[in-house]
Every structure is written in structure tokens, then in C-alpha cells.
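Q: Please design a sequence for this.
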């Protein structure tokens, strides 16, 4: 029973966010996979996979700490009150011990894998602890902190395989994360109504109209930034073939907006990613198209 509750509390479904560490591996193949050497590629893939596993461990410890801090507030939420800690099924001491163990092991292995990677992971841990205790209560800053966490994942994926990554990709990651974050805040407001401030203080400062305006800013900004990236990034094929991936990004954003506004989803991006077939297919096609284009024009 304890193991089952711990497994639920570390939220394996949210590990999908850590797939961002593979972006650098994918978007550098045209420059660093030439000539193509299976052993070298396998080595880079193994390092990226190790980074993914370590970020899953770190983020799981973060979820446990966050649940410990928010246990009373989560009991005011119609869905989060069912979490093991909020419902009383999991003892806080078990959650704290697991969080410390995961954090200790993951940090040690991170520095063993790469000193720079370990520093990035340490920065991520510090950021999330600040978020859990302070920053999540500050309007707008709370969502920007979440976005910074996504960027650090992308940075970690680059440093662990020792490749530079285009600044455009960081910008796109920030805008995409802000889009998801503001959509999540909107869902919380709509779901909780007048009880929203009891769950999270920063929700008292938001309104659905304000969040919809913010979403209306970051969504087109993300499309424009990605489009400019496909045309102007120095590390992409010079024939601008990457522009063929733009429709996948546009569809993905439109599909997510449809789910947020028409299906009243958006509270759990990982649930959407794992359950909405059109979005899953779109992301898979985007990854496949990007990989094929970059692999075909490696060395250019």
C-alpha cells in the first residue's frame, strides 16, 4: 500500500515533461552526426537517456516536497484532495524520506555524469524549492518560474551531450511553457470558481479574462518564434527545409486551445499529452519530420 501510494505521489505521468532533454540530441544531428557513427550516436543517446532518468528522479522529489507543503490547500481542491498525502493515505514521514533519498541519489549521479549537467540540475532544484515555498504565490512570476524549469531541462539536455543549442529553441521553450502554464491557471480558476484563492493565493490575482489575454499573446508569439527559428537559426539546414515542420506546431497549439476551451481541459498537460490521440500523432509527426530533415541534411 505504501509503495502504491508513493508511486502515485511521484507522478510518473508528469515525467513526459522531462522528454525535453532529448531536444538537443534531435536538433543537433545535422551538425554533430556527420559522419554518422553508430557507436557515437549510441553514446550520446545513452547520456541523454541518463539525463532523462535523473530529471525524473529530481522532479519526483519535487512533487513530493510540493505535496507536503501544499497538503492543506490540496484538500480544498476537488481533484488534488484525492492525492495520497492530501487524503491521509500516505504518511508525511514516508514522503519526506523518499524525497530526500531521490534528491540525494539524483544529485550525486548528476555531478558524476557531468559537472556542468550537475550544476544545471542543482539550479533546477533551487528554482523548484523557491517555487514551492515562495514564488508560486506571486502572480505571473509563478508561471514564469515553471517556464524557467522547462528551459533548464532543455539546457541540461544540451550540456550532457556537450553541444550548443540555438537561442531560438530556448525562446520557443519559454513561450510554449508559458502557454501551458497560463492555460493551467485558467483551468484552475474555472474549476474552483470562488474557492480558487483557498487553493493557491496567486489565483486571487488572476481572472479568466486576464489569463485568456495572456494566452492570446504567448500562443501566436510561440508560432512566430518557431517560424523564425526554422528560417534563421544558424545550426539548421540552409535550404530552410525545417519550415515544413511549422504546420505541426500551429496545429498542436490550436488543438490544445480547442481542448482548453471546448473540453474544459488544461489542468494537467501531461494527461492531455498521454490521452489525446490527435495531439499525440501531431507531436510524433513533428519529431519524425524534424529528425528526417536534420538527418538528411547533416553536415550542412
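A: Design:
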Amino acid at each position: 500500500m505504501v509503495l502504491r501510494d508513493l508511486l502515485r505521489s511521484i507522478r510518473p505521468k508528469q515525467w513526459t515533461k522531462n522528454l525535453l532533454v532529448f531536444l538537443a540530441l534531435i536538433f543537433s544531428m545535422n551538425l554533430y552526426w556527420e559522419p554518422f557513427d553508430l557507436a557515437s550516436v549510441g553514446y550520446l543517446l545513452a547520456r541523454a537517456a541518463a539525463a532523462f532518468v535523473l530529471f525524473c528522479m529530481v522532479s519526483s522529489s519535487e512533487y513530493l516536497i510540493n505535496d507536503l507543503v501544499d497538503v492543506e490547500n490540496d484538500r480544498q481542491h476537488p481533484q488534488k484532495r484525492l492525492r495520497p498525502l492530501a487524503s491521509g493515505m500516505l504518511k508525511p514521514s514516508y514522503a519526506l524520506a523518499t524525497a530526500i533519498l531521490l534528491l540525494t541519489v539524483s544529485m550525486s549521479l548528476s555531478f558524476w555524469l557531468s559537472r556542468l549537467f550537475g550544476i544545471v540540475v542543482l539550479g533546477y532544484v533551487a528554482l523548484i524549492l523557491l517555487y514551492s515555498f515562495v514564488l508560486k504565490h506571486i502572480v505571473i512570476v509563478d508561471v514564469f518560474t515553471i517556464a524557467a524549469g522547462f528551459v533548464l531541462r532543455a539546457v541540461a539536455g544540451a550540456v550532457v551531450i556537450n553541444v550548443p543549442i540555438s537561442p531560438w529553441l530556448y525562446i520557443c521553450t519559454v513561450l510554449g511553457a508559458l502557454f501551458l502554464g497560463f492555460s493551467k491557471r485558467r483551468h484552475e480558476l474555472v474549476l474552483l470558481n470562488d474557492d480558487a484563492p483557498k487553493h493557491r493565493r496567486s489565483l486571487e490575482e488572476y481572472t479568466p479574462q486576464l489569463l485568456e489575454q495572456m494566452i492570446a499573446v504567448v500562443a501566436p508569439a510561440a508560432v512566430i518564434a518557431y517560424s523564425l527559428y526554422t528560417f534563421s537559426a544558424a545550426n539548421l539546414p540552409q535550404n530552410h527545409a525545417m519550415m515544413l515542420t511549422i504546420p505541426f506546431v500551429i496545429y498542436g497549439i490550436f488543438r490544445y486551445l480547442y481542448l482548453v476551451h471546448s473540453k474544459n481541459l488544461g489542468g494537467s498537460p501531461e494527461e492531455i499529452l498521454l490521452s489525446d490521440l490527435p495531439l499525440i500523432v501531431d507531436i510524433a509527426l513533428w519529431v519524425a519530420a524534424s529528425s528526417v530533415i536534420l538527418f538528411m541534411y547533416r553536415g550542412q
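Q: Thanks. Anything notable?
A: The chain is about 70% helix and 0% strand. The domain at 2-296 is CATH 1.10.600 (Farnesyl Diphosphate Synthase).
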